[in-house]
Amino acid sequence: MTDWDILYASRMRSVIASDIRERMKLLDASEIIHLGGGLPDPAIFPYGALAASSAAIWADPARARTALQYAPSEGHAPLRKWIAERMTGEGTPCTADNILITNGSQQGLDFIAKLMLAPGDKAMVEIPSFIGALRAFDAYQPHYIGLPQDSAHWDAKALGGAKFCYVGPDFRNPTGTTMTLGERETLLDLADATGMALIEDGCYEALRYDGAPLPSLLKLATERHGNIEKAPVLYTGTFSKTIAPSLRVGWIAGPAYVIRKLVLIKQASDLATSALNQMLLLDVVQTALDDTIAQACLTYRDRRDSMVDALREAMPPGVTFTRPEGGLYIWAELPGEMDATLFAQRALTEHRVSIVGGAAFYPAGTGAIPGRTGSFRLSFSMIDADRAREGVMRLGELARQMTLESA
Amino acid sequence: MTDWDILYASRMRSVIASDIRERMKLLDASEIIHLGGGLPDPAIFPYGALAASSAAIWADPARARTALQYAPSEGHAPLRKWIAERMTGEGTPCTADNILITNGSQQGLDFIAKLMLAPGDKAMVEIPSFIGALRAFDAYQPHYIGLPQDSAHWDAKALGGAKFCYVGPDFRNPTGTTMTLGERETLLDLADATGMALIEDGCYEALRYDGAPLPSLLKLATERHGNIEKAPVLYTGTFSKTIAPSLRVGWIAGPAYVIRKLVLIKQASDLATSALNQMLLLDVVQTALDDTIAQACLTYRDRRDSMVDALREAMPPGVTFTRPEGGLYIWAELPGEMDATLFAQRALTEHRVSIVGGAAFYPAGTGAIPGRTGSFRLSFSMIDADRAREGVMRLGELARQMTLESA
What we know:
The structure is a homodimer.
Chain A (H helix, E strand, L loop, with lengths): L3 H4 L2 H4 L5 H8 L6 E2 L12 H13 L1 H8 L8 H13 L9 E4 L1 H13 L5 E5 L4 H8 L4 E5 L14 E6 L13 H14 L2 E5 L15 H9 L7 E6 L11 E4 L2 H15 L4 H40 L5 E2 L7 E5 L6 H12 L1 E2 L1 E2 L17 E5 L5 H22 L1
Parallel strand pairs in A: 1-11, 3-4, 3-5, 5-6, 6-7
Antiparallel strand pairs in A: 2-8, 7-8, 9-10, 10-13, 12-13
Helix pairs in contact in A: 4-12, 5-12, 7-8, 7-11, 12-14, 13-14
């Protein structure tokens, strides 16, 4: 008889569903205040523009045929061109040859890991890091090393030998923090000195609520080396946060030489991204992207402000939290020895508030790191200010209760 | 400086674009008679049903929200349920828990290989096999072993130790041949005796033009073991050949226990398939699937007949070819020592006919196999009968010419 457990590759045997996901299924979802997930607010999606684009595609037989037939693995040519022109306009000169269309940026991260990682290869990541990136990389069994938080320690001798360093320069998931211009330059120095690549997760870049935009690593590297072809950076972008997630359209931008290799990976993995969705997306970015981004920034800025205010009011002394300049997340740390996994469990079961304990964002094998046990992530994107405030108040109550219990 | 070639994982260094793909780019595509690619005919796609479904989704705010927000990694629940009910109705009792939605069946093959293969693991395949499956498996570095063509040699002692055997029982790509009921039972015996899994590519199953349908391996295994949960089979299905490729919706069906593991792979690879496309698909299969399949079978049956007739007329003695009962492909073999790679090159450059030389369908490392150098694949799906006939006539001329040259 067939025993599937024996047939799994060893790297896949230990992969199990996250506790939180499973626990959520046991509870009636409607009564929970969700501060955990980072879904974009569907009220912002450009429904009218998408409906108009759909109708126009079905009304034109030639476009309808293109929308339903297999698309090129590298992506729908006019969309690749549009993205390249947009990036060029923002200061990163490139062409369609520098763009591969992917199913959201998650697929971009998977493909880059598939291209570069063999078991035991060193992969450098910020700690904590986006869970989705860690799960994508895990499948190729890297040995994780942490990029030190203090850029004074970004030393080529100590940090050599990694295939790549994965970073989210703008308001990254989960911490909401942003790399300074100096840190970006220092990281490029490190890449040049060690020969590693930089994987730049740009998925929140457009969602900036305060402060001046900073240049992407890809832009800085293109300036520094004179040409995107010489940049040691692969940039993953997405329309999931600016238009809508379920069109599943993102992209990788980088040297054409590397993009050609990634196209072959796309072909072997799922042939191509839906042509229909790429055509819808192209219509909509041309008419509605800037307005949709402006609307998203207005909405999310208010919610961030409201949540930061609520945290200031509700949290007992010793709880610290970030105030992100953009993106969807606030990162909080509990004082002393307080355990955030337990905190998240009790928040859900006793107070009906879902948050994500920070432990999930720390890659396997990177040992004891400050914040590993005591941190958690909040998102302000999906929920109106009053309900989020109620959730934060309940978390404050729990934090005070646990402080008393541990005293 | 960063040298990307050094950063690639070794398994990816040798991956290059196929010769044919590159050569095609050099020629003016409009003057070529394409008998190579196996694209479905866009004249058959159900445009009206898709336009109506789109309009209905955008007109309903709740459905529009669902269509654009992140979908569950396992797939849109009503579509999973519909597929399970359809498979149950066709004699394979199962539930939504037995179904994972993928981006076409190509992604299903990638995920199954990602789940099961470690470098050096044995993967058994029919020889020749679907190129897309080989490219998906290649990324996980299996050691290929060939399933002997004659089922009298399907011996558990000689063929043990493989993680799985990948087969296309119905009119498979590239040969167009179909496994008999006896071969299917013998293959299930082999799986039971060796403990390996069977990966059943069901992508052409609905496109049968002659003869009585045969039960799928999944159906036979479910009957044999009393329950899909005990079947050693993962079945990959797709709507690419029956509705339209660029919705990019397919599925894996199998034991729920294995599907749950594959859901985690889906999550790490690209989070989820487009909810919009799954909803469009569900609307369309409910109203138009059977009619679209009937129309496709009518169209493709005529084209197959016409191409088989043309081959009989045009080919010199010694050229053999299959007459498939369904699907999109005919497999031909040249006589003697004639080389099909050269034949395909000359067909393209001298006669402006594209075909696919058979060598691409033979997995690396499986050595000298009859048909390896002399075979090629023709497709009759995309092109009208007269133009296909003209293409076959030119191929016949070339075959006669090469016969004379080698005499």
